[in-house]
Amino acid sequence: MFPKGGMGNLLKQAQEMQKKMNKAKEEIEAYEAEGTCSQELVKVRISGAKQLKSIKLSPEIINEDLEIIEDLILIAFNDALKKINEELDTKMKKVTGGV
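-> structure tokens emitted (99 positions)
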């Protein structure tokens, strides 16, 4: 019923997996990604914990319409979030062996 080594071996493997997952979580939370929009008029930095760290606007954008600025911020934010999610997927696949 249980693999060779019995239940104790299975429990040990589960504990090792938990340690690896905790380490990966810490690494992800320390990771930061920068997202940009076209021509890098807006740069957004997000932590792996998905907290907004900074927004930088190019002086060139100041004369733009408010709606355009808002859209560019959203594009940059979503770009950074995509990078965070890709890093999360990569780390978790390493820990779980792609399961």
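Strands lie at 32-36, 42-47, 52-57.
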